[in-house]
Amino acid sequence: MATRATGPTAQVWLPPGFTLTGGGAYDMGRGTSNTLTACYPTRNQSGVYTGWAAAGRDFGLADPVPLAVYAVGIRITRDGEPVRIEQQVFSATSALVSDPGVSVKLGAGWIGTGGGAQDNYATPVNGNMLTASYPLIGADGNICGWSASGREHDAVDQARVTAFVIGIRTGPDVALEARIVSNTSLLTGYPSALVAVPHGNAVVAGGGALVGESGRGTMLSASCPIISSQDGRLTGWFAARKVQKSAPPSGITAYGVLLEAA
């Protein structure tokens, strides 16, 4: 977790033996000023995606807040032996514009488990923030890519947005599938939504958030796993957005990506 700051940044790394499948962040400010600008997978010194990075940004008024960052990973064993898991991260970057948006496709043969976004804003003082980072769902109900968007606020501030989607695959002896669960909030001033994991053997591998009514006063402030205080399990996904006082009520959808044996 990042310490309280007006532009908080933080990274977290999985322990050895785990494969990164997703991650999230929660900008913990209570006001309207500090929101997310980045929530995406990051590489270690060997060039392998094993961690998650996030950043926040205030605008208008200084709003120093802590930032919680989460990396989600899996480890599979068979007869007590670890099962090899391949991982590939696909990404795409938008043009430099005031309201950037981009989508990236998942490569053929990969199982989509999560994704992220980074708003690479051009200036250090204005206000281009993330407004969405969410999975694209194909006709078969599986993840086929990831989409991300940003928007300037209060002042001209162009940016490039990068979208990331994580894919994994295993050998023929272990079959996995990922499925999506989602929940949409009501239209409110400070919308939030959470989606719970159904009972069974599915585990949360990642998740995302999609804004409902878009506008210049709406920004993404949380897309992160829900963790049980009893046993530390991931039990769902939480998403929230902040809305300036002058903006109309809006909504948000939280997506959870569940991974289970096929």
Q: How would you describe what is shown here?
A:
This protein is mainly beta and 262 residues long. It is 0% helix and 61% strand. It contains no helices and 20 strands. It is globular. The two termini are 35 Å apart. Residues 1-5 have low confidence and may be disordered.
Q: What key attributes describe this structure?
A:
mainly beta, disordered N terminus, six-stranded antiparallel sheet, 262 residues, Minor tail protein, 20 strands
Radius of gyration: 18 Å
What string gives the helices and strands in order? Answer: EEEEEEEEEEEEEEEEEEEE
For the biggest β-sheet, the strand order reads 1-6-3-18-19-16
The total count of helices amounts to 0
Structural class designation: mainly beta
Compute the average pLDDT. 85
Protein name: Minor tail protein
